[in-house]
Structure formats: structure tokens, C-alpha cells
Amino acid sequence: MPIAQLWRFLKVGVLNTLFGYALYATLVAIGLQMFVAQIVGTVIAVAFNYFTYSRHVFHAAPTSRMRFVLSYALNYLVSLAALAVAAIVVPSPYLAGLLATLVTAAINFVVLRRFVFAASPDQSAADAVPWLRPAAISE
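^ thats the sequence. predicted structure below, dont judge the formating
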């Protein structure tokens, strides 16, 4: 991956994470239960994230909206599990939300890079696992 793309991903990722967390925290602050705030925030953040990642990070890569939506459905389930675990460990819904956000942000990068903004899921899997690449036959 080019360094410039990684740098753009980090910058946009920070922006998306701040946006998503600020939205979650605002929803909790106005009285929504933390799991309700998480689903509402996720739905709004998905649209925002699609725009920022597709326009500013992976603009040269083919985009699959369906894979993007599916990746965020998976991301939401991981986030939900992370929030449930964090809520057991930490009493504050704000800190629990922040911890869940950090865990899912790291996973999200890999999923977006390998499966959403890739030529095809098969090609990205082969790039991720070298032994899946076809062997070159020399004569």
C-alpha cells in the first residue's frame, strides 16, 4: 500500500472516528440508552464514512456499495460485542463507547482495504494470504 494512501486513511479514519464517537456521545447525553445511541449513530456514520473513504482514501479503487454496507453490518456486530464487554469492565457509557470504537476502527481498516475497496474479494484475499496466489511455473 502506498504510504500516501495509508496516511490519508489514518487522517480520514480519525475524522470518521471522531464524528462517530461525537454522535454517539451526543445521543447518550440527550438521554438515549447506549445501545440505541450506538445503532442510530452507526446508521448515520455509515453514510458519512462511505463518502469520506470513497472520495478521499480509496478514490482510485473500484467501489462496491454492497460490500461497504455488509462490512459495516459486520462492523456493527463487532462494535456491539465490544461495547457489551467494555460496559462490563468500565462503568461509564462514554468510556465504554470509546473503547468499542477503537477496537472496531482497527478491524474496519483491514476489511475496507481488503474487501470493500478492492478489485474483487478473491483478489484481495490472495494478496492478504501469499499461499493463495497461483504458483508461477518456470520452464
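The two ends are 32 Å apart (CA to CA).
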